[in-house]
Amino acid sequence: MCDSSGKINGAWEKVLYKDLGVPDNFVSPHFLSELRKNVYIRKYSLWSVIVDAGCIYQQLCCIVTFVTLYFYLLLDWASPSFIGFVLLLFLTVGYSFFWLLNRNCGRMIGTTFYIRTGLIIFAFDLFLAPVLHSLLATVSTDTIYALTVVFLLINWVSMDYITQSAEYSYESGSNTTSLSSSLLAALCLASRLPTPFHTFVLIAAGTTLFALWFSLVHLIRVIIVAILVDVSLFAVWL
What we know:
elongated
């Protein structure tokens, strides 16, 4: 019930089946007291947005590099032996750098796992290159290029960019769709190359760019963030 001033005696309830002694259009001043705005909003700094956008741009650069290597092999602008040698050089430097960073972090098991996995993948690529080279030979070139565009677009869109950030731990199975689509794109383009050795080099390049590169990049980001935190703490201490 309400008093002579029109105020309710007692707690007001948002119900329609009780007679509270007030007009139908009465609204309590505490009606929106429990309303909260932007509860789960997350604020981003300009630097974090630039870094996250860099991950997306980096993946696009990997795709462009892979397509460029394909045309270099297709048009015979570079021999597969030369590209394979450059790829081997980058793999050696990358694995050495990865080993040194993991050694500083005390994660030697991860290094052994990646080396063993890489050797298995490249061995299968080498032995299955003749089969992979002729697997899609009967498909028209227009269809091959259309499928390649679709697969590379799926790779770019479905890439798990969250796990490439330094504040998240890398999950080995988070990029399954992205990696599978990139390997399918490599398989499609490999069918247009002249020899099985060209096929092996292209698939090995795709494996390096789309599978191994981001493991090293994530580790570098973790090390850089740790260094920046130490420098910040030292500056605050001074």
